[in-house]
Write a structure and sequence with these properties.
Number of helices: 12
Strand content: 15-25%
Number of domains: 3
Radius of gyration: 22 Å
Distance between the termini: 31 Å
CATH superfamily of the largest domain: FAD/NAD(P)-binding domain
CATH topology of the largest domain: FAD/NAD(P)-binding domain
Bound molecules: flavin-adenine dinucleotide
Protein name: Dehydrogenase
Length: 437
């Protein structure tokens, strides 16, 4: 068996995009870094499986530009090619209408009456002036009821909010999240990555190897070792111990809490237990061809469902084939029935892409996957209610991921990975330790 160091400057637990990014920053600054991933391969929720050339991301994924994900990938020199969706449609009472995203689409819309158009135009005209943070304690639902009077306009914005926040319960989620994402989306496109998100994972993996990160996949960490209030390393499944001056937990919140409480002291449990994740049900279908090319991206106005034939815009299928990702946003406060969720997504495909069953090559259903580790709620005060990267009471132990700090989806993952790396380097500098590079 290949051996790995019995001590490192830094240990990273988790080989998803967060763990890989943090490891690269630190290794490039001269630290010796060992990364442990319990799964056989890297990538976590960003991994893509290839079935005869059809690329299945782990549920629908788009790179929302203008945030930390794009910045960190650029800083680390990770390159990728992509396409961007050109047009979104709205499904309303069985009929399909163009999304009134531009002034001309708005004016020409058959879904909206004159008064609706006027209200939406003035809403989009003032949107950039809203301070999203000032809405942190208000729910999306309350904000929409205060701001938008016309029922059809409110319905369009509510369905957009469900898609943007990955949550069907708009009474729960903070308006800060939606308004900030809406403002960003007007200036920065969403990208569908050629080769799926595995392209990003592979780029990060290569960069980590080049930086000298020691990567051990198929190796589960079972506990963080601490002594006198300091992280001292980690314990592995075979009970061996690897020593380190700093440990970064780039896992989901519950895994992080378990790793810390396996020691004598459990400071993360109280932080993690109240967190509400955003979960979705995803039905993805690989097809011999796209039955209805007119409607590649469709948002349901009545129900929390969305569909995107990403293969129209990015290279993720063999020549002539098609891949449609669909998802249903779940309500974190309700138990959902996976069979019913799957039927609802099939029904969306039947309505928008009739004939898909006849050209089906392969399907994948993920009933209840965590898309966001912590949903910023109105009650919790939006992003300010998210935990920070330090673990109280344990020096040199850090957490990073989509549940840390501000931003949504992979933005807080990549943002916290960079922040933790910077914090470790800054604290070592303060303590007078020389940088090796
Ligand atoms: C359905 C879905 C849709 C999404 N859509 C988008 C999108 O459109 N845009 C976007 O930006 N983001 C999206 N995301 C989020 C995005 O995938 C993640 O933010 C990103 O992949 C970063 O994840 P991570 O590295 O923080 O966590 P993960 O990918 O979950 O990685 C954590 C890793 O830690 C490992 N691990 C856990 N415990 C241990 C242990 N004890 N020992 C060793 N290893 C351990 C796990 O195996 C895992 O590989 C979506 C996610 C899902 C599920």
């Amino acid at each position: 068996m290949e051996s790995f160091p019995t001590s490192s400057d830094v240990i990273v637990v988790g080989g998803g995009m967060t763990g890989l990014a943090a490891a690269i920053y630190l290794a490039r600054a001269g630290k010796s870094v060992t990364l442990f991933e319990k799964a056989a391969s890297l990538g976590g929720r960003a991994a893509t499986s290839n079935h005869d050339g059809y690329l299945f991301n782990r549920g629908i994924h788009g790179l929302y530009t203008g945030g930390a994900t794009e910045e960190v990938l650029n800083e680390l020199g990770i390159t990728y090619t992509y396409g961007s969706p050109k047009e979104t449609f709205l499904l309303h009472e069985g009929q399909i209408f163009p999304f009134p995203a531009s002034a001309s689409a708005l004016l020409g819309s058959h879904l909206l009456k004159l008064g609706d158009k006027w209200e939406l135009m003035s809403f989009f005209g003032t949107l950039s002036r809203i301070q999203a943070e000032s809405l942190a304690h208000m729910s999306v639902q309350e904000w929409l009821e205060r701001t938008i009077k016309h029922p059809v306009d409110r319905r369009i914005l509510a369905s957009t909010a469900r898609v943007f926040t990955y949550c069907s319960n708009l009474d729960l989620v903070s308006a800060e999240v939606f308004v900030f994402k809406l403002q960003l989306s007007l200036k920065h496109p969403v990208l569908y990555i050629d080769g799926g998100w595995q392209t990003l994972v592979d780029g990060l993996y290569q960069a980590a190897l080049q930086a000298g990160v020691c990567i051990r996949s198929g190796t589960r960490v079972t506990a963080v070792r601490t002594q006198d209030g300091q992280a001292k390393g980690v314990q592995l499944l075979d009970e061996s111990v690897v020593a380190a001056s700093c440990v970064i937990l780039a896992t989901g919140p519950d895994d992080a809490a378990k790793l810390v409480e396996a020691g004598a002291y459990a400071p993360l449990r109280d932080i993690v237990d109240p967190l509400i994740p955003a979960r979705v049900a995803c039905l993805d279908v690989a097809l011999r061809h796209l039955p209805e090319p007119r409607y590649p991206v469709v948002q349901d106005l009545e129900r929390p469902r969305f569909l995107s034939a990403q293969s129209v815009y990015s290279r993720i299928v063999p020549e002539g084939g098609a891949m449609i990702y669909t998802f249903k946003m779940l309500d974190p406060m309700q138990l959902s029935d996976p069979k019913q969720d799957e039927r609802e997504l099939e029904d969306l495909l039947d309505t928008v892409q009739p004939g898909w069953r006849e050209v089906l090559v392969r399907r994948s259903f993920l009933p209840h996957i965590e898309a966001v580790g912590m949903l910023p709620t109105a009650r919790g005060g939006g992003y300010a209610g998210r935990p920070g990267p330090e673990v109280p009471g344990i020096a040199n132990l850090y957490v990073a991921g989509d549940w840390i700090g501000s931003g949504f989806l992979s933005d807080p993952s990549m943002g916290s990975a960079r922040q933790v790396a910077q914090q470790i380097l800054a604290s070592e500098k303060q303590a007078g330790k020389p940088e090796t590079m």
